[in-house]
Write a structure and sequence with these properties.
By secondary structure, the chain is mainly beta. Helices cover about 5% and strands about 50% of the residues. It has one domain: Maltoporin, Chain A, CATH 2.40.170.20.
Length: about 775
């Protein structure tokens, strides 16, 4: 398989010296003083051979793109990329005012999500077969910088920025993903925060809704010729839609995020323009969240019930971030962007872990079993505990994270005769670490109350993992007439150390890998385009693994076509085939791991293939009306190609041909609206087939506790704009009030969010 990959790479590299890109401006025609040349196409007057279609596609089609938003992927406009790429714009993000990032990402084909708390506090995002648990197989970024607490040492993303702060979201899959890492197995997500606009600007968004949901979002900025400042703050909270047996109380969350940006610039784009930007931020969360779900019969009776045993469960964290970025630009041909960054996070999650003598997952999966019936009675407060085994273990998982580094990227756009080139090279030196201290205490359940047992505190984990990684990557793209060829490679050199203070062991691991990729785009008449690409997928081994654990690797192929006749229309169909020579999973609490926490399991060969279809259009109607519509469909076939036994609960005993868990076979998401400057509205629906939460045979009906429910969620929004500066909106979620199992892991069934609505107002200066 690697031979085919290398052949494709060599072909593209040899062709790259003599062909060029149609999506980049020719230097003499570029606007001389444009400070961000990749944001807007600069050469509308290009001859047809160099610019087959002057219009940009729908993802590049916002007529008033906020200044400072880069609408390209690896230097290419979305229509010209050799891999699948989507940009969710601010207009789409504001259409439904989603606070749950899962609802945002389901609008992108090829992206799967798994809910667990109904709010999306800790998203589970997967792509093209990458297991979605804690988004640990996806490269996650904010403004191009990794934001995971420790992306190499502890890839599970227990922190995710508030989606309401974002003005755009990039989702990249296929060969284009080699520009991002460490995970290239599936794709990358980049969340874009608000740039500093010119002049003075102020914004406020206030809303309230069901379950005492509330949001306060303010932003203010001022910018002159050489100096600019932006300040932003968000408070988002909800009292929760679940009810704790006997004690009630808040089952929701409260989150706060503050961000400040300061920018200074000097020089000019004709010679050399320098820009420095300092971004600082601070985040906190207090959420009364639990991993404890319900037995199937209890869920059917009341899906929004919580057992009293979870009354102490609570997540708290604080996080700080800093990024200092320098950008140097010379005309439209050269720009260099470099960033120093550091993120610190301290989190504590106090939660129910299990009985001293029984697994909660076993008890809730089979509560009628004679032995489990006793534990189930104790858990629900119907039977008083009578033995030490029936003691409930509750305690905090304390973790401290550091993520820091320096990254730089240079982009050069020369032209040789009729050939337009786009060359990007980048490097990153990164260090991150995680310190884990997990403890627990025994509690006796007395009716609806938890009484401390009084015994000594148990320490279940005391360890530290740290990683130093050097990443290098380069992409050469060239266009000559209608043909664009792209080739590139990523190099990851990773050194990790792990110290287990309980087990008194120290281990180290070194990983070095070269990840090539190549692709092609052919512009056809009538605004059609064909794409094809191949790349090496990779996900590194985190610290602390045994010597027989190997990185996750695959060879990924994609092929398809696009049609974009106007700025406001994009139609796309892409097939993908991911050939895994080793699929893996890191076992976490969220999937039910207890004895082998954070251990990686090798699953061997696997095949994931499917189809992604996408339609996006904004139709202009009479009377200044606009009809926006969007439809995304994903079909996925995911199978293990080897038989094996694993202690990971989502794998277990696997036979060749079994279904890979956490991947829905069909997923459809769509929206349609009618909008005017003064008033408008939209309706959106998402259908997802049931997902297995454990591997199993295709023709075997999964157990009730090993599969999520199929779901159809209907949302709507309306707005009115009585004045240019004022907008009033109403949004509704899950209008059909569908109750469904979003997750059965780790301990019992947990629901998605029920029907809710929110009323808000936005005030914005011109």
């Amino acid at each position: 398989m690697m031979n085919r990959l290398n052949v494709a790479l060599l072909i593209s590299l040899s062709a790259g010296a003599s062909v060029a890109r149609a999506d980049e401006p020719v230097a003499p025609q570029a606007p001389a003083a444009k400070p961000a040349p990749t944001t807007e196409p600069a050469a509308k007057g290009e001859p047809p051979a160099a610019e087959p279609a002057a219009e940009e596609p729908a993802d590049d089609a916002e007529s008033e793109e906020p200044e400072g938003i880069d609408v390209t992927v690896a230097g290419a406009k979305i229509r010209e990329t050799v891999g699948s790429a989507h940009i969710i714009r601010e207009a789409q993000l504001e259409r439904f005012e989603y606070s749950d990032p899962h609802q945002v990402f389901q609008s992108v084909p090829g992206v799967y999500v798994r809910g667990e708390d109904g709010f999306g506090l800790r998203p589970n995002i997967g792509m093209r077969g990458a297991i979605s648990d804690r988004s640990k197989k996806i490269t996650l970024m904010e403004d191009g910088v990794l934001f995971g607490p420790a992306p190499y040492s502890a890839p599970a993303a227990y922190y995710f920025p508030l989606i309401t702060r974002m003005v755009a979201v990039k989702v990249v899959k296929g060969p284009s993903a080699i520009a991002f890492g460490p995970h290239t197995i599936a794709g990358a997500i980049d969340l874009i925060t608000a740039p500093i606009p010119e002049g003075e600007h102020a914004f406020a968004d206030l809303s309230m809704g069901l379950y005492l949901s509330r949001k306060a979002h303010v932003r203010a900025s001022t910018a002159g010729d050489h100096f600019a400042v932006l300040l932003e703050g968000v408070h988002e909270a909800n009292d929760g839609f679940k009810e704790i047996d006997g004690v009630g109380g808040n089952t929701g969350y409260a989150r706060n995020e503050l961000m400040g940006k300061v920018r200074a610039s000097f020089g000019n784009a004709d010679s050399l323009l320098h820009e420095f930007e300092l971004k600082v931020g601070f985040s906190t969360e207090e959420s009364n969240e639990t991993y404890l779900g319900l037995a199937a019969a209890d869920f059917e009776a009341d899906p929004y019930r919580r057992y009293a045993a979870s009354q102490f469960d609570r997540m708290e964290y604080w996080r700080s971030q800093m990024a200092l970025t320098h950008t140097a630009m010379h005309g439209s041909e050269l720009d260099i962007k470099s960033t120093f960054y550091r993120h610190d996070m301290d989190r504590s999650w106090r939660k129910v872990n299990g009985f001293r003598g029984a697994s909660l997952s076993d008890v809730l999966a089979n509560p009628d079993d004679p032995r489990n019936a006793v534990f189930y009675g104790v858990l629900t407060g119907n039977i008083p505990p009578s033995t030490d085994a029936e003691t409930l273990m509750v305690g905090p998982n304390d973790r401290r994270f550091v993520s820091q580094g320096f990254q730089t990227r240079a982009s050069w756009r020369p032209q040789t005769g009729p050939v337009q080139h786009k060359i990007e090279v980048g490097a990153r030196i990164h260090h991150d670490s995680v310190e884990r201290l997990h403890t627990q205490d025994g509690y006796l359940i007395d009716g609806m109350n938890l009484i401390p047992e009084g015994g000594p505190t148990e320490t279940t984990a005391d360890n530290e993992g740290r990683t130093l990684a050097l990443s290098l990557w380069g992409i050469h793209s060239a266009t000559w007439g209608p043909v664009t060829l792209t080739a590139g490679a990523r190099v990851e050199s990773i050194q990790s150390r792990f110290e287990d203070r309980l087990g008194e062991r120290q281990e180290g691991i070194t990983q070095q890998v070269v990840l090539p990729g190549a692709g092609a785009h052919l512009a056809l008449p009538e605004d059609f385009g064909l794409i094809a690409g191949v790349n090496q997928g990779f996900s590194p081994v985190p610290p602390g693994q045994t010597s027989n654990v190997t990185p996750e690797k695959s060879v990924n192929y994609e092929f398809g076509g696009r049609w974009s006749p106007k700025r406001t229309i994009r139609v796309e169909a892409i097939g993908f085939y991911n050939d895994y020579n080793n699929l893996s999973n890191v076992c976490t609490f969220s999937t039910g791991c207890v004895t082998e926490l954070d251990a990686q399991s090798n699953a061997g060969a696997a095949t994931v293939a499917g189809l992604e279809a996408y339609v996006d259009a904004e139709v202009e109607l009479p009377l200044d009306l606009t009809l926006p519509g969007r439809l995304a469909y994903t079909f996925t076939h995911a199978r293990f190609d080897t038989s094996f036994n694993s202690s990971d609960p989502i794998f277990g005993d696997v036979a060749e041909g079994d279904v890979i868990p956490y991947i829905p076979e069909h997923q459809v998401s769509g929206s349609v609206g009618l909008e005017h400057r003064l008033v408008g509205g939209s309706v959106a629906g998402t259908y997802v087939t049931a997902m297995r939460e454990a591997a199993g045979a295709v023709d075997e009906e999964p157990e009730r506790f090993a599969v999520t429910d199929a779901s159809f969620l209907l949302d709507a929004s309306v707005y009115a704009r009585p004045f240019d500066f004022l907008k009033v909106y109403v949004t509704g979620r899950n209008l059909l009030d569908m109750a469904y199992v979003a997750s059965n892991r780790p301990y019992g069934a947990r629901p998605g969010a029920p029907f809710s609505f929110q009323i808000g107002t936005k005030v914005e200066t011109p």
